[in-house]
Amino acid sequence: MRGFIPTPDADLTPDYYGRYTSYLAWYKLGQIKRIDDGEAFLRDWSYIRVDEFFETGKSILSDFYGKQISSYLELKHQERTIWFIRPRVPQDRVHEIHVYDTARVVPENFPTNVISSSGNALLWISDPHFSDDHHRFPLVSGHTGWDLSEAIRNDIEQFLGAREVAGVLLTGDLTWKADSKESDLAYSFIERVRSWATLQRNSNSIVICPGNHDFAFTATPWVKGEVPTVAQEEAR
After folding, report:
1. 67-92: per-residue pLDDT in tens?
2. How far is Cα 199 from Cα 164, in angstroms, rounded to an integer?
């Protein structure tokens, strides 16, 4: 397998792309040029297959190859960052693929849809306790260390040799005292995990079970043994 390399310039690398994480390749943005009629421009191009871009050595998007790019929405629904394209030729197919319509999840207690994933393991995270003083990892990765998302990702890569998981189980307590700012930290963490684990939104691939610290049924939800009272307005 090709080696993973760190970013050539950490100062120019966004945190959400793993500034302190190694990848198989890095791309530097060059000139950004405005295109007045973007939809017409897109339709002059077609998708091309590059299996080497996928770690498994095989693309999972074979339905798109040899087909004209139809619209911005078709690109957006693929949940990708990079596409490989070539000029369209008359033999290319021209239909539009609505990925979102076929994968849409209707809210229900027990979803019946089957989730397909290239990962073969479930990631179980418990009791992260996001807060300013009780969470034991930096809230943002930096020179002092990785945040929890990057620490987990590094361990998975180092000890399991994997970079994808089939799903995430996140069991309480997500917060320390059911504070809205702590909930925002937990949500940001979930989004970072979802991104590097290549889990699509609205796919039921992340299951969350909150704990007692996540509901303010008392004035001090972090105190064990305290008798619950009526939920405070913040909890509602």
Report:
1. 999 988 888 888 787 899 999 999 99
2. 9
d(CA 75, CA 232): 44
CA dihedral 88, 93, 97, 102 (to 10 degrees): -150
| Structure token digits, residue 193 | 């995990």
Contact (CB, 8 A) for 123 and 152 = yes
- Residue-wise pLDDT for 174-218, tens only, equals 999 888 899 999 999 999 898 888 787 766 788 899 888 887 777
Q: How far apart are CA 65 and CA 68, in angstroms?
A: 8
Neighbouring residues of 54: CB distance < 8 A, sequence distance ≥ 6: 60
What distance in Å separates the CA atoms of residue 172 and residue 209, rounded to the nearest whole number? 6
CB neighbourhood size of 147 (10 A): 21
- Helix runs in the chain, H state only: 38-42, 72-76, 99-103, 148-155, 180-196
| pTM, entire model | 0.55
* Secondary-structure breakdown of the chain: helix, strand, coil percentages, each rounded to the nearest 5: 25, 10, 60
pLDDT attached to residue 57: 80
How far is it, in rounded angstroms, from Cα 32 to Cα 201? 28
